[in-house]
User: Fold these one by one.
Assistant:
Number 1:
Amino acid sequence: MKVLIVEDQARLGQFLKQGLIECRYTVEWARSCAEANDALAQSTVDAIVLDLGLPDGDGLDLLRRWRDSGFNEPVLILSARDTVEDRVKGLNLGADDYLPKPFSLDELQARVRSLVRRQASVKKSVLEHDGIELDLLSRTVKLEGKPIELTSREYALLEIFMQNQGRILPRTMIAEKIWASHYDVDTNLLDVYMSRLRAKLDVVPGKSRFKTVRGVGYQFT
Ligand code: CA
């Protein structure tokens, strides 16, 4: 497993590199946007740890270009910018996680491990989580072994959650994926679909698997 670090500060970069080598990852370290793009052009990576303030550009622009060009590996943003708006912006651009600086090495290691693990499960054709099985090939869903009827929109919605277990997904991002449109989607419609999905898939009364994160979106736990 290979992790790319994009960080311009020498001391911090070295610290990150050591910390990830401890987790037995192969680590490549880029100090600028240009070096990061070169590294990705030369080999594949399993996860990226991305700083935002870089000498030749902004990490968010880099992330936007990667996602626009179909680069789909997990990205963890590491940044001193730490308002809710910053986080939502990063998540909307396709980051998988956001860790504010200063951070603890233990936490960084745990989050990178979980991203790499999640990425490995994305490559399977049957996704499983807590009694739900979603078959990406036959596009069918089972709950505790029994088939569940879902409309194609409900299925698409569930697939996004199954591919992003534990991750907080902004409403706008979910809506754009489901309705495949860059126009302003009426996100009230999303609430309608969420309540249908909850009705079909929640088994414990009063405790939803689909957690509402106020002001941001939903989290599948
Ligand atoms: Ca920096």
Note: The CA atoms of residues 135 and 218 lie 22 Å apart.
Number 2:
Amino acid sequence: MSDQPNDFIRQRIKQDIADGTVSGGVVTRFPPEPNGYLHIGHAKSICLNFGVAEEFGGYTYLRFDDTNPLKESDEYVDAIQADVAWLGFHWGDHLTFASDYFDQLYEFAVQLIEQGKAYVCSLSGEEIRVGRGTLTEPGTDSPYRDRPVSENLDLFERMRSGEFPDGAHVLRAHIDMASPNINMRDPVLYRIRHAPHQRTGDAWVIYPMYDFTHCICDALEGITHSLCTLEFEDHRPLYDWVLDNINVNFHPPQIEFSRLGLEYTVMSKRLLNQLVDEGSVSGWDDPRMPTLAGLRRRGVTPGAIREFCRRVGVTKQDNVVEMNLLEFCVRQDLEATACRGMAVLDPLKVVITNYDGAGETLEAPWHPQNAELGVRELTFARELFIERADFELEPPRKYKRLSPGAMVRLRYGFIIRCDEVITDDQGAVMELRCSYFPDSRSGSDTSGLKPKGVIHWVSAEDGKPTEVRVYDRLFQTPNPGAASLADDLNPKSLVLRQAVVEPAVMASDERRFQFERLGYFCKDDERPDAFNRTVTLRDSWRPPA
Ligand code: ATP
Ligand code: MG
């Protein structure tokens, strides 16, 4: 069993509980922007937010941060909900949208204006950017900074009523243009955007900025611990400033932790979007994507992702985690739960010359350690397929698999010996003629023969021809995208195989299997007769030559 994490955030929460500051239970939120699908970095935040609320007797809001109608859509809203639920977390009645609070947000903005703490600025976006100064230079005051309150109220009202085009004015906080923290140099709170919103329709033509919206939503929802990633550390003074200057009686603490990075992939929605748009992958749920939809389609279990997040832990150090750790968690989970089966990905035909019966029924367990899963039947017949890679015309010393004159055991079946090799004009191996030893049946072997190797196989008669997609890492470099994403793509991230799969596997209702000696595979959601490789059996990654 996994031991309970005790990171700095959990320690802080325990302290707050001991001090009596969170008497009503721990309330957290996961606040995705519905502008893309969730990725495994989001899973870290989901596991943390929902995890602490569960551990400390509270609840978690799933709150959509839908303040930018140009980039957001219902497709993403639906996909995000499906992904959070799939990961195993439940928000119950606590599903909210930043847009639910647009009226209140507007009222709070008016409050700031009335106190002289916000003003309508009519500089262009570029002028505002330049005027903010740099890390070493202070900003310069906007010529509109000291507009009278009444004029600001009037203009803001008219911004709302749609009188001005996009970009004509913004509402800015009146803070400190010389602040060492650029976020405090009169940040923009509202902008004009004549765009219909997926939830509020045409009701609004001004939209609040994230930094203004987020803290207020947190306060209105009574979030006891607002957990976010480190890049928001510099925004914390603004988070606090907004809540300190409006009339709201709850002020959550913002606590930052490090983002999850993962080797051999990219994690920002912008870059993932680019991969989809450029056709480098088949979509957000391409099994090579680090999205939850992609990982699910690849066969990764929610339990493996939760365990991965637990092992990564929560710290303040930014780090890029090795892909091996994710693959380890996936294997560990599937090793215990996935049914076993046999498939031949690169079939080589074998004819058993001394067998001409109607087929011998053999039995094999669905799982070597879990007898409860029962057994399946295999048919040994005159014609079989083995893996091309399990035969060598000229074997190296100590070769354990099949070669001319050598013997090998067929898994759960009989020992066979290769008597003859059929080649084509170019010398390519086309077929093997073998004999089998009837008294060598697995489980009741009296032959006294001791072949060194055991190989997997599928009967040619009832084996099912099907497509197997052998997926590998999408990128061939650990930190892709430094120069160009496209240059770093792994050309062998997807290899299609015309394979033959054991019939009991095809007929089973299970989705995930270990194909013996090959790896873990999963029936594809959209084409259940095709398999996606989830992960290899052991860590065998090498960059492509
Ligand atoms: P991206 O950079 O991928 O677009 P984002 O931060 O813009 O991510 P949001 O939808 O705003 O995406 O994120 C929702 C929540 O998930 C935020 O609280 C954010 O801090 C968290 N989150 C996003 N990416 C990661 C990550 N790689 N590791 C941990 N938490 C993350
Ligand atoms: Mg964001």
Note: The mean pLDDT is 96.
